[in-house]
Specification:
10 helices, 15 strands, 29% strand
């Protein structure tokens, strides 16, 4: 039996990523789309439309949630209203895949997770963090597990540029937060998830950090850069540097070094360096191609509904930890590099 699914939110990401992911998943059938306006809902023509404006009997969100042929909902709405929608949809008895970040701040996210877990709901709630499903992150995690050893260092570096003209009213950046660090929260949790995935594969977690934050771009007054020193529970340290104000450099890499070797995710390939049985240095490079992981995360969500077992990669607690890492970095930067403990 196919799983009937609806999309809440009809922005570019819903149309360009969620819709193709649903269509590519044999377990799912798109039944409906909801947006605040009928005009926006009509952007996705492959389903029934529900909307608030103009007010029309039988076409509200409540009417959509009352449908028995809709079993699950993907929520891709502005972040400042996302929590209310998650609660409303789960209370209606539908499974939920909500977009990252999990919430606008750690306090709100903690309350939401506590509300969900304490109710012992049978509905599955997953948070869509596609970086956990990137082929490079998955391969690098597998290699780190096989490599073993103690993590002695790591670094994450992201350089990119997002200008004013790329932050349209429909963009996730505009929708994400009302504060000036919205881009670092909305996109920064991706890289927190990527780093944490690799560290977890190497059996490590972040314990504390200190950070500097600033704007690295002329003609911008919003914070778009984090430079952070991060300490692990084993006492070793690494660095976490992301900038969305780097107009003349574009790069992304995550490297984790252990006393047995190193694994690096860089663009569309993964590099593993180790020693063979004779003690010789061996370097292996694997091309993984480009895949943004959205289809994989939607497929995993569908499988979890079918089996009744939530996928650990989409656990709300993981998304909460991603947000906590970024928020603590921003707080440290605001407080002149104060040390922040990660519980």
């Amino acid at each position: 039996m196919s799983i009937g699914i609806a999309i809440l939110g009809a922005g570019d990401f819903a149309r360009d990523e969620h819709l193709p992911a649903i269509q590519a998943c044999p377990l799912l059938t798109l039944k409906a789309v909801y947006s605040r306006s009928k005009l926006a809902a009509r952007k996705i023509s492959q389903a029934d439309w529900y909307y608030d404006h103009p007010s029309t009997p039988l076409y509200s969100l409540s009417d959509l949630l009352a449908r028995e042929d809709i079993h699950a909902v993907i929520i891709a709405v502005p972040l400042f209203v996302q929590t209310a929608y998650i609660k409303k949809v789960l209370t209606a008895g539908k499974h939920v895949l909500s977009e990252k970040p999990i919430a606008e701040d750690v306090m709100t996210a903690e309350g939401l997770v506590e509300w969900y877990r304490s109710a012992r709901r049978k509905e599955i709630w997953s948070v869509a963090e596609n970086f956990r499903f990137l082929p490079g992150i998955i391969l690098a995690s597998d290699q780190l597990e096989k490599l073993g050893g103690t993590v002695t260092s790591f670094d994450l570096n992201l350089y990119g540029f997002i200008g004013h003209d790329e932050q349209s009213d429909d963009s996730p950046v505009k929708q994400a937060l009302c504060d000036q660090s919205g881009i670092l929260v909305d996109s920064g949790v991706h890289f927190a998830a990527g780093l944490r995935s690799l560290l977890q594969a190497a059996r490590q977690e972040v314990s504390s950090l200190t950070a500097s934050t600033f704007f690295d771009c002329p003609n911008r007054s919003s914070t778009n850069t984090i430079q952070s020193t991060v300490q692990l529970r084993n006492g070793y340290c690494g660095t976490f540097n992301i900038s969305f104000g780097s107009e003349y450099k574009t790069a992304f890499s995550i490297k984790v070094i252990t006393d047995q070797g190193s694994v690096t995710v860089r663009g569309d390939h993964v590099v593993c360096i180790m020693k063979d049985k004779e003690g010789n240095r061996v370097e292996e490079t694997t091309e993984v191609g480009f895949d943004n992981g959205v289809k994989a995360e939607v497929n995993a969500f569908a499988k979890s509904i079918k089996t009744g077992v939530a996928n650990e990669l989409g656990a709300p607690e993981e998304a909460l930890a991603d947000l906590r890492l970024i928020q603590r970095m921003l707080e440290s930067g605001e407080q002149g590099g104060a040390v922040k403990v990660i519980l």
